[in-house]
Each structure stands twice: as C-alpha cells, then as structure tokens.
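Lab notebook, bench 4. The sequencing result for the construct came back, and we need a structural model before the next group meeting so we can plan mutations. Quick request posted to the team channel:

Model the 3D structure of this chain.
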Amino acid sequence: MVFLKGVSALYRLRSRVKQHSNLSTSVRWLQTQTSSDVDLHSQLKELIPEQQERLKKLRAEHGKVQLGNITVDMVIGGMRGMTGLLWETSLLDPDEGIRFRGLSIPECQKLLPGAKPDGEPLPEGLLWLLLTGKVPSKAQVDALSQELRDRAVVPDYVFKAIDALPVSTHPMTQFATGVMALQVQSEFQKAYEKGISKAKYWEPTYEDALSLIARVPFVASYVYRRMYKDGKFIPMDDSLDYGGNFSHMLGFSSPQMHELMRLYVTIHSDHEGGNVSAHTGHLVGSALSDPYLSFAAALNGLAGPLHGLANQEVLLWIKSVVDECGENISKEQLKDYVWKTLNGGKVVPGFGHGVLRKTDPRYMCQREFALKHLPDDPLFKLVSQLYEVVPPILTELGKVKNPWPNVDAHSGVLLNHFGLTEARYYTVLFGVSRSIGICSQLIWDRALGLPLERPKSVTMDWLENYCKKAKAA
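Done. Here's the predicted structure in token form:
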C-alpha cells in the first residue's frame, strides 16, 4: 500500500470499497484524493520526498536480500524471468494480469473518471494514477486534460522532418522521426547543459514528459492523414479529452470510436518494465537521455514484429482467413487453417505471451466492448471462434506455455469496425498509448535517482567453463 497513511486513509479506503462492494475481494489498495489541488506537478512535489526516503530505507535495510537464482537458460533466453528492474507504475502478474498502481483493468474502468457516466476511463485519469498512485477526481482529470491541450503545440519543423520521408514509409518510422524532431525543445537537455542539481532532475523531465504525451497524438494523426487521407489534416478540438481528441484528429467523429480510443489508450499505456519498449525507454533514460530520446528509442523497439507490430499482423492474418475461407467459416475449417499456418512454420498472431499464463485481461475488456457495441460484426465473430479453436491446438502442440489470446488478438477488429482499417498504422496507436506509461516511469526514475543500467554479459566460453566447474564441485 504505497501511499496509504494512517487511520484516516484506511477509513477512506473502507468507504470507497463499500461504495464498490463488487470489488471488495480484489482491490489490493486504493487511496482517494485527500486534496482538492488540481495541479499534478504540485502533487508530485509532495509525494517524491516520501518515496525517495522509502527507497533509501529499502536499500539500506534489505539491499543484500537475494531475489532468486539466475540460470544458464535465463542468460541465453533473453534474460526471461530475471527480476532486475524497479518499475513503479505497474506490475504484471502471470495469473492476474496487469495492475496499474495496484488496480486491475476492471477496477480502473469502474474507478477512474470517464467522459460520461459508466463510460470508459479517460487516459488522463490513468496518467494521474500512474504518477501519484492515487485515483483522481473528475476535476483533477479535467484540469490535466486542459493542461495537455495547452501543451499540444507542435513546431512546423517536426512536420517538415516527417515530410522529408516518402509517403510510403512505414508509419512507425514516420512517427519516431516526428518524436525525434520534437526533442529540439527538450527542457531537460537545456537544464542539464546549465548545470541543474541532480535533486531537481525530475522537474524538467516532468515538463518534457507531459509535453511529449500531449504532442504525440498530434504527430501520430499527422502521419495518418498524410498517408491515408491525402494530407487533409484536422485541428484539435478544445472541447475534447485526450482520447476523444486523438480519434477526432484521425478523422473519426463517432462517439463509440471516441470511447474505444479512450479504452485503447488506457489499457495499452503500461505493462511493467520488462517488455521491449518499456525496458528500452528505461535503459536509454538511465543514461540521462531526455524523454524524447528515450521514447523514440522505445518506439523503435515497439515497431518490431515480436512486440507492437503484432497487432498489425493479427488483423492481416484474420483477413487472410476470410479471403481463403469466407466469413461464414465453420469451426472445422478454422481448425484446418490454424494447422495450415502452424505447419507452414508460422505462428498464429495474437496468441501467447511472454509472462501471462491466462487470457490477457486487456483482451477481455476489448471483448466486452465488442459485445456491447458490435456483437454482430463478422470479424468479431471470427475472433470469438478463434478464442475457442486456437488454445486447444496450441496446447496439443505442447510447446506453448500460454495458449490464450493477448491484447493484440482483439484490437485490430475493433478499430476495423469503426473505419480505421489501415493495419500498418495500428502500432502507432500503441505507441501513443505507451507514451503515458514510459514517461510516467521516467519521471520517477529521475525522482528516485535510479542509476545507469549496466548488466553484466558473458560469453559462451565463460558459461561452458562455469558449468564445468560447477559440475566438478
């Protein structure tokens, strides 16, 4: 219970859980706001000294405690399963899924303010939660929405940098180029060159992080309109929130699409620190690279087929099923197509996960959205069939630890339904979302004074010799 203090906090916890009795067995901790202050920066100035002392005490009292043993398999297998990073904003449990500051996705859907009653959570509310560990009030979320709109000013040279690339360039390349061009305005870089104290590193990092989060939907929508809509750009709407505005600038006015974008940005924002994009952002940031440089590096990791590009591959694969078998495909036909894919040396995209050992909660909340808003969509029905067909086949193979669908198995079908049919662009949406989690953690990296990341590497000769000595002993 990171931020709970005293009896009054416990009383507030009990009151909130009582209001949401259906959550009582699953909410691990929760603190409602104790201040009417709507300024996020002021909240962090109050919280950071407490957390600095907490980390100092943890290291002093428990720094020598062992967290586990490292095996040769872990070293060769991409450091999988090694506990080696401090990541405050979220935690991924193999059985429970992701928790943002202790809250599951269903809890976030119920407790974070929405644009309308019983609507999807506003991404700004999740940003507040990730940074402070507290569930914000609607007034605080509205103030943060306004601050992000005020910061969403993109210089012309950013668009010129993107325009220097061929229109056919992959949208992730264009997006990362735009983020790199934004770096010219880095407040952290300016402050560092002037000799800012280490104790204040987090403040210009905060400025960069919030400005980056505010600007990336603008850059991302520019890429989309440039590639697919003949360069006819749509300005920001000052009456809309973060997710609604992103949808609007892309060219979608449907209230349901706005709700989908709010949900999409929220659930894709963070997934603890070990995934490629989050780890890359943290690693590059540990060298005191500013948030723009760190996030641009993270985007290049996200663009890989084994990470964020998977959501593009899922929709293309599903459409290939329809092209070959038709929309009214039987379960037996679908099984045959899945086996054909696997026997061809390929994977079924959207299934399996490096950590999770159950169906991804991010998949389930998207499925619930589909059941509510598009139950008769043919591709959604196909996704539902795949949910029944694919896991038993992957289990039969015996090579997959998690045969269940992940977040990428569903998002493309939802976007496609509302008219965003360009699958090559989907990873950019993921990138916009991931800015919230990566930038939140970068602020805390600076606030806690986390050091340069420098793990030890070894050669195969070293491993072989070590194992021989261990066996002889």
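Strands lie at 90-93, 97-100, 103-104.
Will bring this to the meeting.
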